[in-house]
Amino acid sequence: MNIQGKELLKGLVDRTVDIHSTHELSKKLQVSKDENRPLRIKLGADPSSSDLHLGHVVVLNKLREFQDAGHTIVFIIGDFTGMIGDPSGQSKTRVSLSKEEVEENAKTYQEQVFKVLNPKQTEIRFNSEWCGSMSFEDVIRLTAHCTVAQILARDDFSKRYTNHQPISLVEFIYPIVQAYDSVMVQADVELGGTDQLFNLLLGRELQKAYGQEPQVVMTLPLLEGLDGIHKMSKSLNNYVGITESPKEIFGKVMSISDELIWRYFSLILCMREDERKEIEQSVVSGTRHPRDIKDELAQNIVAMFYSQTDAQHASQEFAAVFKNKEVPEDIPEVQMSGDPIGILNLLTQTHLTTSNGEARRLVQQGGVSIDEQKVTDPTFQVKLKKGMIIKAGKRKFVKILLK
Q1: CA distances from 131 to 168, 171, 179, 398 (A)
Q2: What is the CATH number of domain 3-220?
């Protein structure tokens, strides 16, 4: 492989955690060049929610790098497997989704992936294409290629089995079905998060059983969510959705811990290590404040999905609200009757909170104010006035209009 090929290989494996193997990827890249045939790079995603978030972007960024190198992305929407529920990394049986839920979520996935990927170099496939028509005999023959010992070797299954927690046979079948996707699309490379390593490696084994050259497996880090502890997940409400408003994306990124800044620079913005270290050093030396670095990070992330103008406006509004204690320009307006109302009911009826329980916690924590006056008594009765501003938490506001 020439110097240019080695540089390409180095870039493609950058930021990865596991790779099976670099040597195989090098060979595939060389064959691709010699035969003028793009590699088929697979990513599977079960539409378990309606929105993609920054955690998904970590892998999508790497897929885009493969596209920039001339290769084809095969994005498989697991409309069939989504109804089973991926047990990867789960400590208990995962609830499956209905066909209607999966179909609705799948529609939004198709639209959202092209915020990062080039549609001209992307195949969108649904695994119901081949799984939906399988007979019971087909399923039995497929499962014959995998042993129970192999499945139980997976860490999460092993722990659940040892702790006498239930594991359904459907969950055993899930990784086999995901691996079969690789056979059906003849994947050269498959990407996923580190929690998907077992499933991806099983794809290699199943391809061998079907007489195909095994795919190269590459995993990327799991991005920590806003809590700084757990991986980003909508179910944990620690996520930044890529279709959220510029203001919401900016505000959420500004809420991450200083320690996470560098992870986000690396995994979301794909910043080179030498550039990142230079910025880190500026913070260590005191020439730049972490808040300014975080502002730069947040603006760049907003600009990925919107525009630089939107990013600058989000930054300016954030500064006005949090530094200068000003009220945002575009506050939602809610019409109320004007009758006295309890603070908890007011928060839920204006959709500042989703329940009275959440409202109570927010009030008791000092996170609610009316016209800049804090309310800490959950029994407080509010006499509504036209133009009254209710603030809940750090970023939620509504203006009251009287009917």
Answers
A1: 19, 16, 12, 48
A2: 3.40.50.620
CB count within 10 Å of CB 324 equals 7
Q: How does pLDDT run across 350-381, given as a tens digit for each residue?
A: 989 888 888 898 899 888 989 888 899 999 99
Q: Looking at the chain, how many residues does it have? A: 403
Distances (CA, A) of 359 to 131, 145, 272: 45, 53, 43
Encoded amino acid at 71, one letter: H
| pLDDT for position 83 | 67
Which residues are within 8 A (CB) of 6 and not within 5 positions of it... i.e. 6 or more apart?
Answer: none
Which stretches does DSSP call E strand in 133-230? 189-193, 216-220
Q: 10 Å Cβ neighbour count for 237?
A: 9
Assigned CATH topology for domain 333-402: 3.10.290
* Pairing verdict, β 368-370 and 373-374: antiparallel
Residues 25 and 9 sit within 8 Å (Cβ to Cβ): yes
Q: Can you say how many angstroms the Cα of residue 200 is from the centroid of all Cα atoms in its chain?
A: 19
pLDDT at 98: 72
In Å, what is the CA distance from 212 to each residue of 92, 153, 184? 34, 24, 10
Region 127-136: mean pLDDT is 92
Q: How many CB atoms within 10 Å of residue 42?
A: 26
What distance in Å separates the CA atoms of residue 256 and residue 54, rounded to the nearest whole number? 13
Give per-residue pLDDT as tens, 51-77: 789 999 999 999 999 999 999 999 998
* Cβ–Cβ < 8 Å for 311, 326: no
Q: What SS3 class is residue 25?
A: helix
Alpha-carbon distances, residue 106 vs 129, 232, 238 (angstroms): 14, 20, 22
Q: Model pTM?
A: 0.79
Residues of the chain with CATH 3.10.290.10: 333-402
Q: Which part of the chain is CATH 3.40.50.620?
A: 3-220
